[in-house]
Amino acid sequence: MDRQPLIKLSRISGGYEGKIVLRNVNLEIYPNDFLGIIGPNGGGKTTLIKMILGLLKPASGDIAYSLQGKRTNEISIGYLPQYNTIDKKFPISVYEVVLSGLNKQKSLFRPFTTEQHAQVQRTIARMGLQGLEKRAIGQLSGGQMQRALLGRALVSNPQAIILDEPDTYIDKQFAQKLYALLEEINRECAIILVSHDIATVLHHAKSIAFVNGTLHYHPDTQVSQEWLEEHLTSV
Ligand SMILES: Nc1ncnc2c1ncn2[C@@H]1O[C@H](COP(=O)(O)OP(=O)(O)OP(=O)(O)O)[C@@H](O)[C@H]1O
């Protein structure tokens, strides 16, 4: 069995403008992992995600990616950002949002292929957004918007997806569907889920990382009452 981690962070430290936000972080993500990330506001969860996505360079330490046991410069990672970071006035339709998830795979001087458009249609159907393809994102409900963004994260069949608070603004019924869908996706794709809802993380994730200036990893969700009390009282 291939036990090479898809993503490996070794002794990572970093932050912004000389201010260190995360110190000495070690973390390995394997192909079928479902890691739940929890921690207090300002603890560094989004900073960690930015580093994994390659958007923020660590001040020190190493981030390595592997595919089928071989080290590679990058892997495909789908990202669902926090809802409040999206500009809802941006004039873009549901179809275009999902299609934009394929931008990296598109040849610079060629239009999207028929197969890529078919991939977008399949993803829109999977997200339950049929009939809303042409609707501008400013005219979507919070839940529809989250589904469009999840579609964008998934349309390229990435090796991993990172979801930052995905169940904000979605109703219970869709939340259930979302987690059932994530379970299915997890058979082919590693999942990193950031959530303030500890019950959700304990229920759906396979392992937990607590992030507050550094990272404490727990290999399963069978955490003791003491561990929870020690780490979560400040969340
Ligand atoms: N672009 C930035 N420039 C400077 N400081 C930043 C920047 N982004 C975040 N920070 C600071 O880094 C620290 C960690 O922020 P981060 O957004 O990673 O925390 P978080 O755990 O994701 O918080 P939340 O749960 O509120 O989303 C905070 O003190 C924050 O103010």
Automatic annotation (TrEMBL):
Record-annotated membrane-spanning stretches: none
Record keywords: ATP-binding, Nucleotide-binding, Transport
Provenance organism: Bacteroides gallinaceum
ABC transporter domain mapped to chain residues: 7-231
Protein name per Swiss-Prot or TrEMBL: Metal ABC transporter ATP-binding protein
Keyword check for Nucleotide-binding: yes
Similarity field: Belongs to the ABC transporter superfamily.
Alphabetized InterPro entries for the sequence: AAA+_ATPase, ABC_transporter-like_ATP-bd, ABC_transporter-like_CS, Metal_Ion_Import_ABC, P-loop_NTPase
Molecular function (Gene Ontology), one example: ATP binding
PANTHER family (alphabetical): METAL TRANSPORT SYSTEM ATP-BINDING PROTEIN TM_0124-RELATED
